[in-house]
Structures are given as structure tokens and as C-alpha cells.
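Budget justification note: compute hours in this period were largely spent on complex prediction jobs such as the one shown. Inputs:
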Amino acid sequence: MVDLDRRVRRTRRILHEALIALILEKGYERITVQDILDRADVGRSTFYSHFRDKEALLVASFDGLRDELRREFDAMRPDMPAPDAEPAIAVIFGHAHRHRRVYQALCGKRGSEFVHGHLHRLIAAMMRDHLEPHLTAADSDLPVDVVAEFCTSAALGLLTWWIGHDFPYSPTRLAEMYRKLAAPGVRAALGRAAE
Amino acid sequence: MVDLDRRVRRTRRILHEALIALILEKGYERITVQDILDRADVGRSTFYSHFRDKEALLVASFDGLRDELRREFDAMRPDMPAPDAEPAIAVIFGHAHRHRRVYQALCGKRGSEFVHGHLHRLIAAMMRDHLEPHLTAADSDLPVDVVAEFCTSAALGLLTWWIGHDFPYSPTRLAEMYRKLAAPGVRAALGRAAE
DNA sequence: TCGATCCCGAACATCGTGTCTAGTATTCTG
DNA sequence: CAGAATACTAGACACGATGTTCGGGATCGA
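Corresponding output:
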């Protein structure tokens, strides 16, 4: 599976591109396998020899992005002092901006609930790990899960809004707005006065 | 349409109940019309004489809840002084708690993206209308849309998390947590120091 | 009891899915 | 270059779900 034939890689790439294009045109739900086949000019049996179904293709498309995002997280992980996880969120916004087209397809309004869910879980887990030590240290009365869910939903909400409105601000500006809105609440949850 | 036959009302009610039960069991997407028919013990043609398709039934189920929620909003609208819209969010949480089962089906993990979207739009519009005067008065550097989206996503995120975890806190406690997390940021956006 | 309205069951055409088979093109290897 | 291995193609197929239609039976109001 590692040393794939060049043809295989080409076919898969063509299928991914067809999927992205079609999602942008008519939304994931309304796409049929036949649509993908026609667009990619690939035979039916070829498709099913690569992917179990439409969703498997989506997952594969998403996996690439997700792994790249994870690597960017890990590269930054060691030094994230702020209690609000703004740097991490900034990474996501930057990543989304660099892959505008794909994000627009996968995470936009026409994307699938599946991708939203996975991205949500990914960020939420990261957020929880990050917040946990801070909150226990400060002996907060707010449960970690609630704070993490709050920050995650807010960040992802901004992200999808941003995507849906065609990226009206720069990634750093959006991250700054996120920080302005989220940080005071998180600090308050830590029991400290706002700086 | 207003003066419906008793039988008609009964049939529709049975269909709604079957839908809710089935969503809780296997999730909206995986339900087939035949499933609903079997569960409700209703004929195929009867179903299609009432609803265009599966989604129309879902919409009808959601509409009732939505109207009720809107009325509760309007009843409270006149006096909402706080810049954060915490009272309105508390109304939602209370409403969800009173209709646990239905919310669990429609807004939970097994619900449909459709309902999420509509609820999101509903809250976002409310939030925007509420925030607009405050933000322009304070001459904030944050756009209304961004702040509204932030608050809406955070509130809905907490809501679905809460539903998905079987309502671990009281509605008022959850609303209080929301306020603690959201209010400082909104106040900061208004340029005032946190109190 | 009559007529209107609603509901039922069954049949039907249509569409999308996923499988399979036989055959063609490309690449790798000796 | 010959032959094997590996991708891909085209088409047919069974299956399941959708939404429509129709004749007949049940239930209600007058």
C-alpha cells in the first residue's frame, strides 16, 4: 500500500479533485458516484477498487489535510503558554487560508457533517489537553469539558463563517478577533482578573 | 389546513413520534421511509399525501419546536439589558431541557445537519439584532457578524455537548457557565473594562 | 343511509448502489 | 522482446429505496 503505482496515485488524485469540484458545485449530499465517475473520467469498477463508497473517498481527502494540520500543531505544541489556545487556532486559520478551495468544499456550508464532526473532535481533544493543567492549577469551578467545548465551538464557528463568506479577513486578523473574544472568558474561568 | 380532521392530526402525530424514536435509535440519515411506515403502522400513500418526503416530516417536527421557542424569545425580548445575550441563551437551554427527548433526536449527534443549520441561523439572527446597537454605540473594532457568530457557535456548541452528554447540569447552571465564558469577551469587544 | 374524506395495500417506474466478469492497456521483469 | 503482473474499462446485474398511482375499504358528518 506504501509503494503505490504511479497510475494508482494519479487515479486517486483525479478522483479527489473531481470530488472537491463537485462539492463546490452541488454540495456533498447531492453528489452521486456516477457524477464523480463522469467528472474524473474513471471507470465504475476502478472507483470501487479504490474506495468502498463515496464517504471513503471523502475521508481519504480529509485525512491528508488532517495529518498536515496535526503536524503543524505538533510543531508548535511545546511552547504554548497562553491559557487561551489562540496560537493553535491561528494555525488552523492559516492552514484553512492556505487551502482555501479544499476547506471551502470540506468545511463550508456545502461540505459534509462528517468532516465537521471529525474536525470538531480533533480540535476539542487538543483544546482539552491544553486547558486541563491550567484549569486544575487554578482550581476553577468550570469543568474542563465545558470550557474546551466553548472554545472549540466558537473557533470552528468563526472558521466556517469565515469560509462561507469567502475569507473576508486575514487569518491573523481573525485569530486576533478570536483571542479578543475568547481570552477574557477563559482567564475569568481561571479565576484571575482580566489583565 | 387549519381545521384538520382529527384522524389527520392523529396520523401526523404518530408519524412524528415514529420519526423521533427512530432518530434516537439509528440516526436520521440511516432512516428509510419504510422504517417510519412500519413503526407508525401507516400506509405508504398516506405518508406521501401528508409529506413530500422524509425531510418534510422532519421540518414539520422542527417547526413546532421552533415556533414555541420564538414565542418564548419574544416574551422576553423587551427587557434584555445585558450586552451578552445570556438570558436568551438561558431560554434556549430551558426549552431544550423541557423537551429533552425531542432535542436529543433533532439537535443531538444523531440529528440532522438540517436542524442544526436552521437553529444556528435562528440564534445568529437574534444575536445579531441584539448586539448591533451595543456594538455601534461602543464603536467597537469588531464587526457585529463576527461577535454574533462567536456567541452563537459557542452557545450552540455547549447546547449540543450538553444534549449529547445527557444533560449533566441544570439549564440555569449551564447558562451561568455560558455567561462566565462569553460575557467578558463581549464586554471587552465593547471596549469597556471587565467589571 | 348517503356522501365526503381519509386511509390502506399493492403495483409500478425510476434511480442510485455496489458487485462481478471479461477484456484491454500499461508497466515491470527476465 | 516476450510474458507476467498489475492497473483500468465497459457493461450487465441484483438489490434496495424513492415517490406515484389506483381501486377499494374504513370512518366520519349530515
